[in-house]
Amino acid sequence: MFDINKILRTNIKNLTPYSSARDEFQGEASVFLDANENAFGSPLVQAYNRYPDPMQYQVKMRLSQIKGVPARNIFLGNGSDEAIDILFRSFCNPGVDNVIIVPPTYGMYEVSANINDVQIKRVLLTQDYQLNLEGIAEAIDENTKLIFICSPNNPTGNSINRDDIETLLANFSGIVVVDEAYINYSRQKTFIQELTEYANLVVLQTLSKAWGLAGLRVGMAFASEEIIEVMNKVKPPYNINEASQTLALQALDNIDQVNVWIKETLQQRDKLVLSLKHMDFVQDIYPSDANFILVKTTNAKSIYEYLVQHGIIVRDRSKVELCEGCLRITIGTPQENEELINTLQQFK
Question: pTM, whole model, 2 decimals?
């Protein structure tokens, strides 16, 4: 059974978080003389002289309506990377604890572990890019605090078998983090709906991909109230700036536009796959539930360098385990995809 107190770091359990006056008072106020701000305004058209809402209440309430989950189960971070880092700092004792990742996968799990001096245990995915449950079970020990699963997975693009993830959730006494950065493009339903079933589940999502707000850096974590309380305790007091909160709120009122872009992206993905299949140097194109495809080629490095020379940037993943010879190609606009295809057709 999952018990947060058994995996929470003692110093975090005893931590008194930073508290501003705006955390402490209730109700409305018209005069703010508490935070040593410049009361006269900003040298901009819009005033940014006041600190932002430290708990992003309005954004969380709008997300609550969209996602169907209470605001108290939502954490907002400066990108999903902040949520990942906070999970390490909250639950993993440096030099003692370990986490499990399942390569090939998103690189920031390992980077964040290294920054926090936390041991990484690597259990490779199977040849068809699914979980090796037996290998994960063997890797777990009494100091294993987190398991990271990216689904749809980056860089492979496929969704991870849902039953396998639920097996981990039901049998692991630590936290299972399901990173759903690309869930808007997937046929698989989100794990947010399972929060009431699994106290040890953390779901990561982002406004950087389908929502088109990568420049604002707004990531989301969905979890039990007790896990969210820990994350809010550890985060910086004003981690999401006012501009990002304001613009995110505006964007969240444009779901119809986002859905149109998702549909077009999937159509363009299918079209790009068909075009690439006819090229001699393409050996395989793996099934994708994301806004990118993983393409196995005869010479990834040469193709990558050729595209760079023509001003087209893709991602060379050929040195990643189980992705040998592969390029990861993001789905662009129809014009960008056409330019890619036309350029590749000239490759020799």
Answer: 0.96
